[in-house]
Write a structure and sequence with these properties.
The protein is an alpha/beta fold. It has 16 helices and 14 strands. It is a multi-pass membrane protein.
Length: 479
């Protein structure tokens, strides 16, 4: 998924009046910073599910952007899949409160009520109960239950074209005997979203009426941070460009996710385009992670950071014994748990690494990021058609892990890295977006990684690679 510490979700309601049965969205979480008793995750007082439910009309009056949409298939008889495990990494305490992405669940309210007991302590969570979608395209699904995230009206209401990520899950996969049909709901939901068309002018007009422009459309506000979730790009007008990750039970069903995919049906999962682009996740991947951990116990630390947002013995004992997170007072000991690394993406198009983005070497970038900014790079997120001109480029990206030192970089590359917790980024979102002038001035005064000056303001340095840098890179690579 796009992980953007420098751009947090924005949620604004056009009508400032309260809607019966719901608190005002802006004040839903009271903007009070609280953490669980271990200090590992953001925590809030338990909320009744009725307080976070949005009707379609309420969602239509809301401008959601930079959020996470979770499409979940399930009903009152479906097995619980544990949505808490999905939410916990998105509520890790090494993110500041204003950096948390709003999560919107779209699915059957009967199923979500059963999961809510494990979700009611997390802030910035909303639910849009999906409605029955009747279409000739879905007639062959004779057992389709009421309340599935296939309704395009519901998807448009939550601004799925402005989301940072759409996750498609199903709790009904084990209820089907035919293995070839176990992933039918997830695949249909993915294809349904990809075939949608959007008019970006509507969202821009609505947003501007409240003085807010969704991320990627605002060209006036400067951003000097080298850390970006994704490159700023025009608004999405077709569903094909929406970032989607789909859960699959059977690896062979990956062939149905992309209509323009030319992969052979017998191709292994890890060699297919959806897997390389990060749009498909199969259960078999967990088996590979377990095998890798057996041969290298250091991988477990990386997996914890990537998948769980971090874990401590106290947290594991609490979940094992009580199966719940408790709120706690902020003490120096618990607040110290926030000081842990997190995953981020470096943009090479601008910022302090732009000089390496045009023909530079990955090894030089690795050494510069590590020595200057204490960032550990471990992969590249590259456009599939990076060699083509911008108008003909495909928006799909794929991951290149642990490239060699001499690997050439291109300006559109995004770099996966682990970065230190930034204590100086905990200011309110309002102060960050008050004006482009004030945000630029404050960024110059900050000593954090978010205030690194761009290369346009610094003299160009020769692209030289010292031998000691390369030696250090090789040592890190061996580790």
């Amino acid at each position: 998924m796009r992980n953007s510490p420098s751009s947090s979700p924005k949620l604004m309601r056009h009508d400032p009046l309260l809607i019966p049965g719901n608190d005002q969205i802006d004040n839903m979480d009271c903007n009070v910073k609280k953490y669980d008793s271990t200090g590992m995750f953001h925590w809030c007082a338990p909320k009744e599910i009725e307080k976070v439910i949005l009707t379609r009309s309420e969602a239509a009056m809301t401008v959601l952007s930079g959020h996470v949409v979770v499409c979940i298939f399930g009903d009152v008889s479906s097995a619980l899949i544990g949505l808490r495990n999905l939410v916990m990494p998105l509520r890790a305490s090494n993110f500041h409160y204003h950096e948390l992405k709003h999560i919107v669940f779209v699915g059957s309210i009967e199923y979500l009520k059963r999961e809510w007991e494990t979700l009611h302590n997390f802030p910035k969570v909303s639910i849009l109960p999906s409605h029955f979608c009747f279409s000739l395209f879905f007639l062959f699904l004779s057992s389709m239950p009421k309340g599935t995230p296939l309704s395009r009206a519901d998807l448009r209401a939550v601004n799925i074209n402005l989301c940072d990520m759409c996750v498609i899950l199903s709790a009904n996969q084990n209820n089907i005997d035919d293995t070839s049909l176990q992933d039918k709901e997830c695949i249909l939901a993915s294809l349904n979203i990809k075939s949608m068309q959007f008019d970006d002018s509507i969202g821009v007009l609505q947003a501007n009426s409240q003085g807010f422009t969704p991320p990627g459309m605002d060209r006036s506000s400067p951003d000097n941070s080298p850390v970006h979730g994704m490159l700023r790009q025009p608004s999405i007008t077709t569903g094909v460009n929406i970032p989607i990750i789909t859960e699959l039970v059977n690896d062979t069903n990956v062939q149905f996710l992309d209509q323009d995919d030319d992969d052979d049906p017998d191709t292994e999962l890890y060699l297919t385009q959806p897997f390389a682009c990060g749009t498909a996740f199969a259960v078999s991947v967990l088996d590979s992670l377990m095998s890798a951990t057996y041969f290298n116990d250091n991988i477990l630390t990386l997996i914890r950071t990537l998948v769980t947002g971090g874990a401590t013995p106290e947290l594991e004992a609490l979940i094992a014994e009580e199966n719940a997170l408790r709120g706690g007072y902020s003490t120096p000991q618990t607040l110290a748990n926030r000081d842990r690394c997190r995953v981020a993406q470096l943009a090479l198009l601008d910022g302090p690494f732009a000089d390496l983005g045009d023909g530079g070497c990955y090894g030089d970038l690795f050494c510069k990021a590590l020595k200057t900014y204490n960032m550990l790079c471990f992969g590249i997120y590259r456009l599939r058609d990076a060699h083509l001109s911008a108008p003909s480029q495909c928006t799909k990206r794929y991951v290149i892990t642990n490239p060699p030192y001499e690997f050439e970089l291109v300006p559109t590359d995004l770099i996966f890295c682990l970065m230190q917790f930034d204590h100086n980024a905990g200011q309110s979102r309002a102060s960050l977006s008050h004006s482009s002038h004030s945000s630029q001035s404050s960024s110059k005064k900050s000593s954090s990684v978010h205030s690194i000056p761009s290369t346009a303001n610094r003299p160009n340095r020769p692209k030289s690679r010292e031998s000691r840098d390369k030696q250090k890179y090789v040592q890190e690579e061996r580790l």
